[in-house]
Amino acid sequence: MSGGRTLDGEVVVSGAKNAALPMLAASILSAEPLRLGNLPDLRDVHTMLSLLRILGAVVDGAAPGSASVRLAEPKSFSAPYDLVRTMRASILVLGPLLGRFGRADVSLPGGCAIGARPIDMHVNALRSMGAEVEMRGGYISARSNGLRGARIDLPLPTVTGTENIMMAAVLADGDTVIENAAREPEVRDLADCLNAMGARISGAGESRIRISGVGQLRGAEREILPDRIEAGTYLVAGAMTGGRVALRFRGELALGEVLAALRNAGADVRRGEGFVELDMGGRRPRSVNVATAPWPGFPTDMQAQFTALNAIASGHALVRENVFEQRFMHVAELRRLGADIEPLGREVLIRGVRRLQGAPVMATDLRASASLVLAALVAEGETVIHRVYHMDRGYERIEDKFSGLGAEIRRV
Fold this sequence. Notes:
Layout: E1 8-12, H1 17-26, E2 34-39, H2 43-55, E3 58-60, E4 65-70, E5 78-79, H3 81-84, H4 94-101, E6 103-107, H5 120-128, E7 132-136, E8 139-143, E9 151-153, H6 159-169, E10 175-179, H7 185-196, E11 200-202, E12 208-212, E13 220-223, H8 228-240, E14 244-248, H9 257-264, E15 268-272, E16 275-279, E17 290-291, H10 303-311, E18 316-320, H11 330-336, E19 340-344, E20 347-351, E21 356-357, E22 360-362, H12 366-378, E23 379-380, E24 384-386, H13 389-392, H14 398-404
Parallel strand pairs: 1-14, 2-13, 5-6, 9-10, 17-18, 21-23, 22-24
Antiparallel strand pairs: 2-4, 3-4, 6-8, 7-8, 10-12, 11-12, 14-16, 15-16, 18-20, 19-20
Helix pairs in contact: 1-2, 1-7, 4-6, 5-6, 6-7, 8-10, 8-12, 10-12
């Protein structure tokens, strides 16, 4: 990448990875096809489709665009290590496998190395619903002769935990109530999908979710909501380069605190039906303090991008990470580009500099890779980013989209 260009143009926002993966897992719950539109062409989506095929699903069509998934007769109840180690969201098959078939063997998950994301909340919830769950040989082994509804108080509002419990509970006997549930838009999107399949879920998007078990689910057709993290990343790119970026999308794009932070950074932002437009008018962004929190707070998946923005903004800022304790690994790479960032435990102090300098850097996780791309857009000279396979897990055709905005970027 060669930096220094002002971005100007439009981007079509892809379907949300974090909504697509649980919806694909939900296909396990019915013998009829689940058809998903606006399915992004991502490495994680293909990994999930591969896992579903191992379980016995028939997949017609594939990303980009749409896919129909049907699991009538399972061939396996096991999610193997070779797949699960590359994508933590593989654990989302645990709840639906146990709920429909009464058995599941899922390898302990991998994914981005951004800190501890314990699965004990998933396991304890399933035990509360009557499942026998053991850890053996690196696998979560769960068995049930029929799950029962239960009251589940989550110590933290875990997104995948909430989703796994919902999918386990839709076919359980009786009512399940999840207290302190995650409220993210993707949780609500999954609940809407399950309800379209015949589930009875209320309260999704709030801290208490109630699920009344039903006898069986049917097929359905759903459109995946647009990816709010991809959208936020391109808006930050526009702000950092002093440019204009317009987003186009179908459905609800929930940006929340991200838009507030961009306005605090000095961006003019307007939005309407199916579009959001950011215009910096050639101005340098102002520093903006950020503290991550579960929805509706500032998303942890946008922390790295705002760390990059603050690196070239006027003034100084504190960025605090409250969700994952190891999510500042991009800081060392940004400092290689000339960023003035001082680590302070769970937060960093960033003193904005006018210019970064191109250098070879290495992506350590999905969102860290995005922050390095953003920094490279404003760095003098050439930046080479290694291990971009992280980026392919969550950004669809990122080099094509940035090229369309005027960036000088290519894959090597």
